[in-house]
Amino acid sequence: MTTSLLPGEAPVSLNEARGWLRLGSSIDDAVVAQLLRAATSICEAYIGQWLIVRTAEEILTLREGRARLTARPVVAVATVALMPAGGGEIVLGPGDYALTIARDGAARLAVAFPGDARQARISYRAGIAEGVNGIPEAIRQGIVRMTQHLHDARGGAGETPPAVIAALWQPWRLLGLGSGR
């Protein structure tokens, strides 16, 4: 399970969303902020990547000393700790494990000597950009349009999101074959 220790920063400001929705300066700020967070989460789920770099922590099962990190794209690993069967944790040094980051940002961890540990706790950072300005405009526009769709559907209308949103996000969507990414 991937846990983001800090919520992801929204790549679209509240003012931008209000402007797109043609709302007044402070009308429905809480609602629009909630919709922006939802739209950002939908985008991240659709493209399979975190947008703004943030910290993650996972407890992963080791298979033959190897594990695949969930969030993408991985930027760096902060700590790796083995969780032996008898309890406790053994923090590994950088030379005690190898991290391979693929071109798509997927990362695999390999521990040379895991001992009897079947799990590892890994803290790392993942995301496309360090800040809002690094997010591609097409992704940002898709988030604004998804926010509008969610705003319009507040009354319970069950319409599907406009196809243009998927078209805007498609170039950044990561797909994989089989059960693992």
Write the layout of secondary structure elements.
Layout: E1 2-4, H1 14-21, H2 29-47, E2 54-61, E3 66-68, E4 74-83, E5 90-91, E6 97-101, E7 107-111, E8 119-126, H3 137-152, H4 163-169
Antiparallel strand pairs: 1-2, 2-8, 3-7, 4-5, 4-8, 6-7
Output the structural class: alpha+beta
Sketch the major β-sheet: 5 strands, antiparallel
Strand order of the largest sheet: 1-2-8-4-5
Total number of domains: 2
Shape by Cα distribution: elongated
CATH topology of the largest domain: Hypothetical protein yqbg
The percent of residues in helical segments reads: 25-40%
CATH class group of the largest domain = Mainly Alpha
Through-space gap between termini:
15 Å
Low-confidence stretches: none
Kindly estimate the percentage of residues that lie in beta strands according to DSSP: 15-25%
Brief write-up:
The chain is α+β, with helices and mostly antiparallel strands and 181 residues long.
Characterization of the model:
By secondary structure, the protein is an alpha+beta fold. It has two domains: 2-51 and 130-172, Hypothetical protein yqbg (Orthogonal Bundle), CATH 1.10.3230; 54-126, no CATH class. Helix content is 28%, strand content 24%. The chain has four helices and eight strands, in the order E-H-H-E-E-E-E-E-E-E-H-H. A five-stranded antiparallel sheet has the order 1-2-8-4-5, with no helix packed on it. A three-stranded antiparallel sheet has the order 3-7-6, with no helix packed on it. The longest helix is centred in the N-terminal third of the chain and has 19 residues, at 29-47.
